[in-house]
Write a structure and sequence with these properties.
Two copies of one chain form a homodimer. By secondary structure, chain A is mostly beta strands. The first copy, chain A, has one helix and seven strands, in the order E-E-E-E-E-E-E-H. Chain A has one helix at residues 145-157, and strands spanning 8-10, 14-17, 37-42, 58-64, 99-110, 113-117, 126-132. Chain A has a six-stranded antiparallel barrel. In chain A, strand 5 (99-110) and strand 6 (113-117) form a beta hairpin. Chains A and B meet through strand 1, strand 4, strand 5, strand 7 and helix 1 of A and strand 1, strand 4, strand 5, strand 7 and helix 1 of B.
């Protein structure tokens, strides 16, 4: 077992360009759709790391919730006002390590700048990593716990 | 634009228990399948953060490549010996920020310990975050660039 106090230091590889300047503008909760276009701007000295990325339709982006403070283990989130859920069973921004994960569609590349669709981050958000999206869990194998229940309740209410 | 030198400090929320003690034991490259069972052991004080996680069939695990040193922008990876590819277009462990991302199937929970299938991490790997897997990109919308090409070449060769 490793050292629990062991800290790992990360530095941004670049920043997100997004139409969202304020959290309130980002679609959240039931039925939220992320179609916004934006860019992932890498540090110019890392551009070589993007070689052959154009061949992938979708990317994982790992980024920092840099405008969230502290964490809450059992937060109440926009999708379900009725009950709180564990932070690791939610996408709450107030996490022990404030890392966000988004799937975006790659539209094009201009040097160290990737044009993407599906940003749900604020403008200026620090990016930690980009990875190719290689495979999906088939929809019929997926169980979505309290999220599916909260969505069903909302539909019933109309 | 944020400060490019800005560092973010992360601390493990727990550790992976895996049958793999050595990188050579982990299935990699073409046709690699991850069916190994293991556990995600959280720090006991974070257990409340797992509330309601049992309802999800699959989880994202963000973890640290703690036994990789430095990074390579255009590495050669096991799947394709013929040509190197950009680190952000690959799953190479030698990344500017050494974060790994895995999708695991949740089999059960015992307090702060999640039993999972599909570990591709070494025993003792530090975990940074756990998130519910909520939706997939449909297979027909996915393009897999050089990875699909390398797989096809290998099939032709038999």
């Amino acid at each position: 077992m490793g050292d629990l106090a062991q800290a790992v230091e990360m530095r941004p590889i670049g920043f997100v360009r997004s139409p969202y300047r304020d959290k309130a503008e980002i679609p959240k909760g039931p039925g939220a759709e992320h179609r916004a276009e934006g860019a992932l701007e890498l540090r110019p000295e890392l551009e070589a790391g993007l070689q052959d990325i154009e061949g992938f339709s979708h990317l994982f982006v790992l980024w920092v919730f840099d405008r969230s403070l502290g964490y809450e283990l059992v937060p109440t989130v926009p999708l379900d006002a009725e009950a709180p859920h564990g932070v690791f069973a939610s996408r709450s921004p107030r996490r022990p390590n404030p890392i966000g994960l988004s799937v975006v569609e790659l539209l094009g590349r201009d040097g160290p700048r990737l044009l993407v669709r599906g940003v749900d981050m604020l403008d200026g958000t620090p990016i930690l990593d980009i990875k190719p999206y290689l495979s999906s869990v088939p929809a019929e194998k997926l169980r979505r716990g309290w999220v599916a229940e909260a969505e069903a309740r909302r539909k019933e209410k109309g």
